[in-house]
Structure formats: structure tokens, C-alpha cells
Amino acid sequence: MNENNNVMNDYKAAGKLKGKVAVITGAGGGIGAAAARIFAAEGASVLITDIQESKLREVAADIKAADGNVSLMVHDIADETQWRIVVKTAVNLFGRVDILVNNAGITGNLLAPFEERSVSEFNRVLSINLTGQFIGMKSVIPYMSSGSAIINVSSIAGITGNAGGNAYTASKGGSRMLSKGAAIDLAAKGIRVNSLHPGYVETPMTHNMEGADAFRKMAIGSTPLGRGASPEELAKGILFLASDDSSFMTGAELIMDGGFTAF
Ligand SMILES: NC(=O)c1ccc[n+]([C@@H]2O[C@H](COP(=O)([O-])OP(=O)(O)OC[C@H]3O[C@@H](n4cnc5c(N)ncnc54)[C@H](O)[C@@H]3O)[C@@H](O)[C@H]2O)c1
């Protein structure tokens, strides 16, 4: 990774989320943790959630050390009851929710031959990457008012096909279309919904996956800019979709992929 892409080293906050309340899932690492740091720096009160409590604690400690307003909750996004508790907690702590970042996700097994994939594994990936985003939106909408924003983190795998990643690709394509449908439904309430489509990002997900080195080589080799993104570069895209800078965008796709889908 090019260290110069780590914007938190010299990040200049502009108060773009001053007074806003955000819930960010999958904030224990990678893109979600970077978004949490940038949101807090921009003045938002953030409730960060993840299934990994120790990682959440590290991110929350960093944010508090920088005088940010943060709380954390252990949360499985596939569980509707847990979502209700998360949203109620955000409202109890901060009074309302203005921004939901549906970021948590998993790759599932990308390498098994198609005919050997199990229905249970397919459904597990869908239950987190797609149903989890649906439940999150459904749970938070009653507490949102006009001017609120929802960002669903999809992938370039939701734009183009992805060899080997069938459940992942299906879930990310679903996330993209779920976002468009929700955008139409929620426009009358003044709630914007957009999807973010990262290319290859240097995160625990891509570094720890099976076949990580070969996948990284393939992904970067197909990326015109010739490198992976830092999580912070994607977090800046999430910030754009969350802030009033994108006030006329809803039902849209923000692709941040170093040119991967330009072919
Ligand atoms: N890294 C990439 O190259 C890349 C590319 C395209 C899209 N994405 C998407 O970006 C999002 C963030 O990915 P990342 O690369 O930062 O991954 P990551 O693995 O580094 O972070 C994802 C976080 O989600 C959490 N999580 C997993 N299952 C969960 C569940 N059921 N409930 C709550 N939290 C759960 C994990 O504990 C982890 O901390 C994902 O939706 C991913 O699909 C990533």
C-alpha cells in the first residue's frame, strides 16, 4: 500500500457531520473503522458495531483519544432482534439517527467449484451481506427524519460478475438494487439511499482470505491505477454520501475502484 494514501495521517476535518448521529456496522476493522474515525473527526456522534468486541474497543479508544464521541455495541447484523436493540441504543444515547452505514460483510468461500457450493453457505452470505442491510434499513427508518442518509456498502462485484464469488456477487448485486428500491420508497421522507462499490481495498478481509496473495495480484493487475485502495480512501466516499455534499444523490452508485470497471 502507498502510505501516502492514509489520509488520517494529515486529515483536515471540516465539520461536515457536525451534530449528526451515525450508526456504522462492521466498524471493528477495514473500511468501517476508517469511516468511524473520519465521521467522528467530522463531528458526528457514532455508534460503532461489529461481532468482534476487542477490535471495536481499539477503534473506540482511538476515537476517544482524538476527542470523538463514540459508543460501541457487539452486534450480528443478520439478527433482527439485535438490530432493534442497536437502534434503540443509538436513540437513547444520542437522541436520533441521521446516518446508517451498512458496511459489515463477509466474502464466504470464494474458491469451491460451483457445483460443490452448499445452500447453507450461500444463505449464510446472503443473510449477512444482503438481508443484514435490509434489516438495518428497516430498523432505523422509523427514527430518521428528512435529510438522513443511508449508505449500503456493496462492491464492484455488485456491478460486474466475479469469478468464483457467486454468493458474494449475488449478495452485492442485491445490495445495489435494494438500495435503488429503498431510495425510491424513502425519497418522500427525505431519506437518501446510495450504494458504495469499492474495488480492491487493503483490509483484514482481503489480507486474511483464502488465496489472499494470488487474489491481490490478480485484483491489482486488473486495476488501471495499479494499486489497492486504503480503507480511508473508501471512507471519504462514505463521508461524501453521508454528508450534504451529496444532497441531490439518491439511488445512485459510487464506484471507487481505481478504474477496475472501466474496461
Ligand atoms: N476490502 C475490499 O477489497 C472490499 C471490496 C469491495 C467491497 N468490500 C466491502 O466492504 C465492506 C467492508 O469490508 P472490509 O474490507 O473493511 O472488511 P473487514 O473484514 O476488514 O471488515 C468487515 C467487518 O465486518 C464484521 N462482520 C462480519 N460479519 C459480521 C456480522 N454478521 N455482523 C456484524 N459485523 C460483522 C467483521 O468482524 C469485520 O470487522 C464489506 O461489506 C465488503 O464486502 C470490501
Q: How would you describe this structure to a colleague?
A:
There is one protein chain. With 263 residues, the protein is of the alpha/beta class. It has one domain (3-257): NAD(P)-binding Rossmann-like Domain (Rossmann fold, 3-Layer(aba) Sandwich), CATH 3.40.50.720. It has helices spanning 30-41, 53-65, 80-94, 119-140, 166-186, 204-208, 212-221, 231-242; strands spanning 21-24, 45-50, 69-74, 99-102, 149-153, 192-198, 253-256. A seven-stranded parallel β-sheet has the order 3-2-1-4-5-6-7, sandwiched between helices. Helix 4 (119-140) links the parallel strand 4 (99-102) and strand 5 (149-153). The protein is globular and about 50 Å long. The model is unreliable at 1-7 (pLDDT under 50). The structure holds nicotinamide-adenine-dinucleotide. Residues 25-26, 28-32, 50-52, 55, 75-78, 103-106, 128, 153, 155, 198, 200-201, 203-206 line the site of nicotinamide-adenine-dinucleotide (NAD).
Compact overview of the structure:
The chain has 8 helices and 7 strands. It is of the alpha/beta class and 263 residues long.
Query: How many H/I helices?
Result: 8
- CATH class descriptor: Alpha Beta
Named CATH architecture: 3-Layer(aba) Sandwich
Q: Given the helix and strand composition, which structural class is it? A: alpha/beta
